[in-house]
Amino acid sequence: MQPSSCDTFVALPASTEGHCIIFGKNTDRPCDEVQEVVYFPAQDYGAEEKVECTYIEIDQVAHTYAVVLSKPAWLWGAEMGANEHQVCIGNEAIWGRETSDGDEALLGMDLVRLGLERADTAERAVDVITKLLEKYGQGGPCMEDEGSFTYHNSFLISDRKEAWLLETSGTYWAAERVEGGHRNISNEYAITTKIDKEHPEMREYARSKGWWDGKSQFNFAAVYSFMNTARIEASGSRRSEGKKLLEKNNGHITAETMMDILRDKDSGINMEGMFMTTGSMVSVIPTNPHLPGVHYFTATPDPQRSVFKPFIFVKYAHQLKQTTSPSYGLNDPVKKKPRFQSKPDRKHELFIKHELVADIIDTNKDRGKKITDRMRQLEKETMTKMEEILSRGIVQPDFLVNLFPNSVQDEMAVYSKS
């Protein structure tokens, strides 16, 4: 199995409609991996408390923000998500000159969750992630059964006014502010000469390794990339195709546009095979701070045969039980050393029902089309309701505490009729 990975997108005004920022991401992971969508409320902690991430324990902060996450069910961190301040983060696997093989540390997915829990703006998320990176490092297996699959990480981070691209190599990093237009990233370094923040020793380290002469204009991607690795062969074409799809809709990008891009199979963005799109996310963030953001998640593989379901941050939002996988606690094979000696069943309720319907879609063309049409109709009806909230604000917050779970129930009702 040749590892591949993901694509992340952001569109800022004036490339979008309705004075909003549109964020989107496909998480491309092993085809048998379960992606869960979970919600954690804001929480306060006492001094000296710790937080157990996927592999290591780190210092906890006094307060964490409420987050909604789409994550591989076996680990602590997340591939993508948002917080109550409408910060959105997605990460990408990248490989460069610096080896990614090393001791267990923070996974890039841990850094996604930590950035969302601890930062109320995109720029602060950059600061949170880079400080944690410098203190704890990044490393460890990134697949539940593949100890050799390791990588560095890049992150696309957005809030109500801007976006940031953060790219790493070991503990070194560079960041670029994205202030307008649109941007998409795949599995290759993309920051060139526009660097708005950086590790203070990043350039000197590159010079000491002989990657940069110390005199020519510094280009982060050119200096830190190792372009001959087979793992990123397809990333350039996917990034190029993604950029074309954004440009095709420039000035008119909507949530529906972003969903269509994530569903696109011809470009490779909607991935199939041993590595496939196991979960998708689209967020609509109004620039008006008085309006809520709407965060859509599939919680199921292949967005083309999935339903994007909305989540809105409101007080007393309920747990997302039907998209939460079984928990094995300290008995989880991930927590025991040596790790990954067995692989428990992590399928959540929606995943199980979706798996059955996906098989029908694949094997019965006529019946499959009827199911898919019903799914799209449900999604369209839900998005119409969300458009009203995006334009007018929240009138009945109590109605929204079960917004995502109710949408899951509606989706499963479509399956039952099928």
Strand content: 15-25%
Helical/strand content category: alpha+beta
Helix fraction by DSSP (H/I, runs of at least 4) = 25-40%
CATH superfamily: Penicillin V Acylase, Chain A
In round numbers, the mean pLDDT is 94
Number of DSSP helices?
Answer: 10
SSE sequence, one letter per element: EEEEEEEEEEHHEEEEEHHHHEEEHHHH
What is the name of the CATH topology? Penicillin V Acylase, Chain A
DSSP strand tally = 18
The biggest beta sheet reads: 8 strands, antiparallel
InterPro entries: Peptidase_C69
Region (Disordered): 325-345
GO molecular function, one term: cysteine-type exopeptidase activity
Protein name: Secernin-3
Report on the structure:
It is a single chain. The protein has 418 residues and is an alpha+beta fold. It has one domain: Penicillin V Acylase, Chain A. It is 29% helix and 23% strand. It contains 10 helices and 18 strands. An 8-stranded antiparallel β-sheet has the order 3-8-9-10-11-12-13-15, covered by helices on one side. The chain has a 6-stranded antiparallel β-sheet with strand order 14-1-2-16-17-18. The chain has a two-stranded antiparallel ribbon with strand order 4-7. Strand 1 (7-11) and strand 2 form a beta hairpin. Helix 1 packs across helix 2 (122-136) and helix 8 packs antiparallel against helix 10 (403-417). The radius of gyration is 20 Å and the shape is globular. The protein starts with 6 loop residues before the first strand and ends with a helix. The mean pLDDT is 94.
